[in-house]
Design brief:
binds S-adenosyl-L-homocysteine; 10 helices; six-stranded mixed sheet; 448 residues; Rossmann fold; alpha/beta; globular; 3 domains; seven-stranded mixed sheet
Amino acid sequence: MKPPVAVGDHCTLDVTGLNHQGEGIGRVHGFAVFVPKAIPGDQADVEIISIKKQYGRALIRQIRHPSPYRVQPPCPVAERCGGCQLQHVDYSCQLELKQSLVVDALDRIGGVKQPIEPVVGMDYPWQYRNKGQFPVAGETGSPRIGFFAPRSHEVVTFDRCLVQPDAINETLDIIKTGAARFSVAPYSEDSHTGELRHVVIRSARNGAERMVILVSRSDNLIRNKEFLGYLTEEVPDLKVLAWNKNSQQTNAIFGSHTEILAGTNAIVERIDDLEFFISPRSFFQTNTLQTQVLYEEVRLAVEAGPRDVVWDLHCGIGTIGLYAARDAGKLVGVELITEAVDDARRNANHNGISADFVQGHAEDVIAGLSDFPDTVILDPPRKGCDSRLLRQLAEKKAARIVYVSCNPATLARDVKFLAENGYTVQRVQPVDMFPHTVHVECVVVLER
Ligand code: SAH
């Protein structure tokens, strides 16, 4: 069918849905048009800017009737920054929109018809992030450090990011001042020259412990002793100053070489009565408060007792298993990143919990594990589980699988496979780990 609109056309749209990028969806004679910054309930005049086979994209020229869910974004750069996609939507409506993203993906891709619990939101959905990853651009002496604009590598700067806590904003300011004063050359993606590519800041226990990771193209950065000395002097509560070298022409933030420049090798975060060491390259959930909400869901689902064998696959620094299956008779974690496995072992010891951690791809490692688990916890990255992993799990026939996912689409694909192999979905509980963004985390409990 020929699309009913062409590039350059103007039309008036009623926005009725939201896509997975947080863009409004309207229809022209049934043909879907995606409109950035439009939200359900808006009626807007738009201009079509591109046409694909299945959908078009358009920009808002004028909002005729704003949605009742529209609010003024409190951040002055919310319109230009790619960090948040939904600041212009009332928070309770954000939660409803996220729930419909989950319902839609699980139904359309996964064939899941079960009811889905309402998303658990935050009482105070600001300053929640314990980590910021900031790209660097600009010129030596006047670096720009901020976030990428949507669908672009233009760096948008800000005075204070409202989803980051004070400790991270303050640390970023000190790094900006130091980089300008001590002539740190910003990296240029185009020419693959310059030095500082990304600044990664972590804060644990409300800024009581901070970590800074400087990502640079070459070793030149760490020869700038004045800059490094300035950071160690000026950043309060700096526990870890680390350097990561990424000399590749790539969009990946990190390269393979990481070194501690000052301080110790990990910061310590607390969840409930447990303490976790987090080293520079290890994954840790970015919203500490909601992490406990998420893990509590998992704990209730796992119901681990002294005779149970629990596998925590994609375990990172061991957090979910150590929190949710601490009473299991046997807990085995599998994780790819060596540093994270070291952290996981240290964390088990530190908290007096007995657990085994194995380094490797979960899909390779579990073939060599002799026992049959009662419960398997899955928490893969956005791309979901490897198909080999799912096939092996179907053969292991664990009574229960608790699947934690940050991507409803791959979650739905994997749940479909498990449903075709003997499992039924018992419960789906989304948790808002990322207020004002389009992302949503889910816990799905499956039983045989
Ligand atoms: N469960 C942890 C980590 C979840 S993030 C937590 O809640 O903090 C996903 C983790 O999976 C990351 O630590 C990543 O390094 C790891 N990972 C990615 N691919 C993997 C694979 N094929 N096998 C095992 N671990 C993997």
